[in-house]
Design goal:
The complex is a heterodimer of chains A (about 140) and B (about 140). Chain A contains 5 helices and 6 strands; from the N terminus they run H-H-H-E-E-E-E-H-E-H-E. Chain A is an alpha/beta fold and about 140 residues long. Chain A folds into 2 domains: about 35 residues, no CATH class; about 80 residues, Nucleotidyltransferase, domain 5 (2-Layer Sandwich), CATH 3.30.420. Chain A starts with a helix and ends with a strand. Chain B is an alpha/beta fold. Chain B folds into 2 domains: about 35 residues, no CATH class; about 100 residues, 2-Layer Sandwich (Nucleotidyltransferase, domain 5), CATH 3.30.420. Chain B is about 40% helix and about 20% strand. Chain B is built from 4 helices and 5 strands. Chain B has a 5-stranded mixed β-sheet. In chain B, strand 2 and strand 3 form a beta hairpin. At the A-B interface, helix 3, strand 1 and helix 5 of A face helix 2, helix 4 and strand 5 of B.
């Protein structure tokens, strides 16, 4: 103390760090507590064809790609396929035409996850004209 | 400096004001959090290739379907008939361009998702979005 008083008065002006450290600590604790890593969401757009029987899909179905979603797997034009082979086939289809209509037929007891898997594949391959039908 | 300590009667208001400010900011921030009403129990399926949701249309109606098939909007449970009424009213006010997003749990049966989609298409909303997780946080 004695040595400090011998210095000039200008040097004697000390900044009290305590409130600032308190504040910074509070902010730190606040952000640590509230920190929650947000999931990045994606959106998958589909068309829902009208359930109206007069606009029936039956006559168009012939030249459309039909993907079936069932509890135990997928089908492509009524042929059972695995997810990997479905992906490779869809890449080939997308090479031909990205705007062709893909009809996704979903079994009522299949989990929603499977439909999302197919829609994700469609997004991956760039196929954008998707219709979801329920069996 | 030394004299001030010996007196010891001046109350320093700075820490109190700091704390009040902190509390104010805390409540301002947490109030904004409450507006984001989604059911935390719903675990979305994983779709890494889908386009990310950057700016959500504020008109978007987010319909949630949990794994047991219960339908809710903003944590308000409802029946399919009630949902259809809400959608019909919204379409009447906002037109057919109204975006609809379905947040379905990945374990939900398609039949329950279908009920929501049928409600949407019965009032004329053909375009439906499904929400999925592009990238998990952490």
């Amino acid at each position: 103390m004695a040595r400090r008083s011998r210095r000039t008065s200008f040097e004697d002006v000390k900044l009290d760090m305590t409130p600032m450290i308190d504040c910074v600590f509070q902010l730190l604790v606040f952000f640590l507590v509230t920190m929650k890593f947000e999931d990045i969401m994606s959106r998958l757009d589909v068309n829902r064809p009208t359930p109206n029987p007069e606009k029936t899909q039956q006559e168009q179905v012939v030249d459309m790609i039909r993907i079936g979603v069932f509890v135990d797997g997928f089908t492509l034009n009524a042929r059972p396929v695995g997810l990997a082979s479905l992906e490779s086939m869809m890449f080939k289809l997308a090479d031909l035409d990205k705007t062709q209509t893909i009809l996704i037929e979903c079994a009522p007891d299949s989990p929603h996850e499977r439909l999302i898997q197919v829609l994700d594949l469609c997004a991956k391959t760039g196929l954008s004209n998707l219709s979801v039908l329920s069996l | 400096m030394a004299r001030k300590i010996r007196e010891g009667l001046n109350m320093d208001m700075t820490p109190m004001i700091d704390m009040v400010f902190q509390l104010m900011i805390f409540f301002l921030v947490t109030i904004k959090m409450e507006q984001d009403l989604t059911n935390p129990d719903i675990k979305l399926a994983w779709a890494p290739s889908g386009p990310a949701i950057e700016q959500k249309d504020p008109r978007t109606i987010v319909i949630e379907v949990d794994r047991r098939g219960h339908i809710s909007i903003a944590n308000t449970p409802m029946t399919v008939a009630y949902l259809r009424g809400i959608l019909a009213n919204s379409v009447r006010m906002q037109g057919y361009g109204l975006p609809v997003m379905i947040r379905g749990d990945h374990r939900a049966k398609h039949a329950d998702i279908r009920a929501v989609m049928d409600a949407c298409s019965s009032v004329g909303l053909w375009r439906i979005q499904f929400a999925a997780v592009k990238q998990r946080g952490r």
